[in-house]
Design a protein that fits this description.
With about 210 residues, this protein is an alpha/beta fold. Helix content is about 50%, strand content about 10%. Strand 4, helix 4 and strand 5 form a beta-alpha-beta unit.
């Protein structure tokens, strides 16, 4: 699994800590981590949590990433932004139980974490345990076990509702504020990371047009 990390501006200073913790947990499991930044608070490209949603949607819908780890001060804004786009099911995760139940009950492809609220002494340990529960036990297997069948059925129903409720991602991107979208792709390493990994030519063409 290719896991993308995205940090917005208010919590960019924690990027290195989050990346190191994520790699420590998931690389021994065979997963790959790709860091899209922000890398530091003074990066030239300043991502807002809304732009996190745009970037995450492009990564997930294009196949450039299989999963997105993101967040903001509380995690709420990032979650709302990501869930505003098709092809993204983002959970708000504060602790390892949230991580485990989201993975097995909701079977999404992104999580938004609170990188300021409650992130005090032992914050990096909480992150480590979250990533262990999120990626170490599979996805969509249900919890508790006697609820597997209805939970999997409900997930399929949700997927069907979302398929009707959302429009084509490329059309959405073209109708958003151009500067907002360009800013989401302005990260220092975005182009070199995204385009070789992108598996959807239509999205790649759209992103190039919007970056021009």
């Amino acid at each position: 699994m290719k896991i993308a990390l995205i940090n917005e501006n208010s919590q960019a200073a924690k990027n290195a800590l989050v990346e190191a913790t994520l790699r420590k947990v998931v690389e021994p499991m065979g997963h790959e981590v790709v860091n899209y930044g922000m890398y530091a608070a003074d990066d030239a490209a300043q991502l807002t949590y809304v732009q996190n949603g745009i970037l995450a949607a492009v990564l997930l819908n294009s196949g450039a990433a299989d999963y997105v780890i993101t967040g903001c001060g509380t995690g709420e804004g990032a979650m709302l932004a990501l869930n505003s786009f098709p092809g993204v099911i983002c959970g708000h995760v504060e602790d390892p139980v949230d991580a485990y139940t989201f993975a097995h009950v909701n079977d999404g492809n992104a999580v938004a974490l609170p990188f300021a609220k409650g992130f005090g002494w032992g914050g990096e340990l909480n992150l480590e345990y979250i990533f262990e529960k999120l990626f170490g036990f599979g996805h969509g297997q249900g919890y508790p076990k006697e609820r597997v069948v209805p939970e999997q059925r409900n997930k399929k129903i949700l997927d069907g509702v979302r398929a009707v409720a959302f429009r084509d991602l490329c059309d959405i991107l073209k109708e958003l504020d151009r500067d907002l979208v360009k800013g989401a792709f302005a990260g220092e390493h975005f182009a070199e990371l995204f385009f070789p990994a992108c598996q959807d030519e239509k999205i790649a063409v759209t992103v190039k047009e919007l970056m021009a």
